[in-house]
C-alpha cells in the first residue's frame, strides 16, 4: 500500500468486493499509522507524541445487538463499556444502548463512541464494521456479542484493514485461539468459554465426588467450545468422560438423552447451552428421577429468570434454600456477577451501574468494563490517541482498574486474551436487596471457590492454542 493512501481510501476502493485484497497491509505503512485517517506524514490531529499527556479524540466503533430477542446481551456490552470509561473519568456512566454517536471525556481525551446495532448477525456486523472503518474512520473497533460475528469482524475487517479490535462479550474460545482470527491488534478482555470450562472442570475434579461425567453441548461454536474444554480439563484431572453429545439449539427431547447418561454410569453432567436450550434440559431433569449433578456456568439474568421460574414451578413458591439443597443443580462457575468481588472498584461499579441502568452488573459487564479501562490506560501509557499506539500499549498489559480488583486482568502475550480469576457459586434464592435490580428468582451465592487467573485460560503450549503472536 502506498504511504500516501489512507486506510479509508484503500477500503473504499475495495468496496463491495470485500476486504480480502488488503491482507498483509498494516498500519505501519499508512501515512498516519492507521489511526486518525490523515494522509500526510505529520503527527495526526489530536495525538500527542509518546511520553506526553494525551489530548484529542479516540473514535471507537461499537458493534452490539441492541434490538431483538438478545438485545440484553448488547446492552450489557454497552453499559459495561460505558461504566469502564465513566470509572476512569470519575463520573456516573451515561452512555445508552442506542444507535448513534455518544462521547465520554476522560481527562483531555474525548472517546467518541459510534454505536451500531448488529442484530446478532455476522453479516450485519461485517457490513457495519466496514462502514465504521471507511465512513467514520474510527481508530478502533469494540464489540460483538455473537462469537460468529466477532470472528467475522476480526478476520474480514480488523485484520485486513489494520484496525485494532477489542472483542467482547463474544465468548467462543476459538476467537482468540485460532490463527484466522487472532492477531497483533485483536484483543479480548471478556472471559471466554474455555475459562468457563477450565474453571468448572477443575472444581468438579478437585472439589466434588464426581468421577464419571457425560458432556452435552449445543451444536455450534459456543457449545462445542464448552464441551471440548471441559473434556480436556476433566481428562487431565483423571475424571472419566462416559459420553458426549451435541444437539441443535432449542432441542427439547431430553428424557431419552438423560436416560443415556444414567445408563453410561454418569455421576455428573455438563450442559454447554444458552437460554435457547437450557430450560428444556432443566425441565426434564427436574421432572425425572436422576441422581447425578448438573454442572456448567452461571448465565445472564435472562437464563436465570427462566431457570428460576422452572424451579418455582417444580418446588413451589417462595423458593427457599432448603428446597434447593440436595437438588443436584450446581455449583456453577461464573465469569462475573455483581456479588462475587468485594473491592473498592467493584463496589463503585455496582452502585453506579444500578443507578444508571436499573440492573446489577451481569455476566458480561466486568469484561466490557475492563475493555474500556484498558483502552484508556493504553492512551495514558502511550501518550497517544492513535489506534496502533493504543494497541501496542495494551500488549501484555495488566489492567489496573477492573471489577475483579486492581490488576485483575492481564492480556496474554501469545494471543491478546486477558486472563482473570473465575469463581464458583451455588444456586440460591435471590436476596431481597437485589430483587428490584435482578429479575430472576435465583442468583449466584457468594463464591464457594476461586480459580486463579493462571489456571483459567488455554496455555500457550496447548494443542488447542493455535495462535502465536
Please provide a written account of the structure:
With about 475 residues, this protein is of the alpha/beta class. The protein folds into 2 domains: about 5-190 and about 365-395, 3-Layer(aba) Sandwich (Rossmann fold); about 195-335 and about 430-455, Rossmann fold (3-Layer(aba) Sandwich). Helix content is about 35%, strand content about 15%. It contains 13 helices and 18 strands. It has helices spanning about 5-15, 70-90, 120-135, 145-160, 195-205, 220-235, 255-265, 280-285, 300-315, 320-325, 345-355, 365-380, 385-395; strands spanning about 55-65, 100-105, 110-115, 140-145, 165, 185-190, 210-220, 240-245, 270, 295, 330-335, 400, 410, 420, 420-425, 425-430, 440-445, 450. The model is unreliable at about 1-50 (pLDDT under 50).
Mean pLDDT: 88
Secondary-structure content class: alpha/beta
The CATH top-level class label of the largest domain:
Alpha Beta
**How many separate helices?**
13
- The CATH superfamily of the largest domain is Response regulator
Tell me the number of strands: 18
Radius of gyration: 22 Å
Give the overall shape.
globular
Q: Please indicate the count of domains.
A: 2
Might you state the CATH topology name of the largest domain? Rossmann fold
Strand content: 15-25%
Q: What is the makeup of the main sheet?
A: 6 strands, mixed
Helix content: 25-40%
N-to-C CA distance: 23 Å
Order of strands, main sheet, comes to 2-3-1-4-5-6
Query: Which residues form runs of ≥5 with pLDDT under 50?
Result: 1-51
Give the CATH architecture of the largest domain: 3-Layer(aba) Sandwich
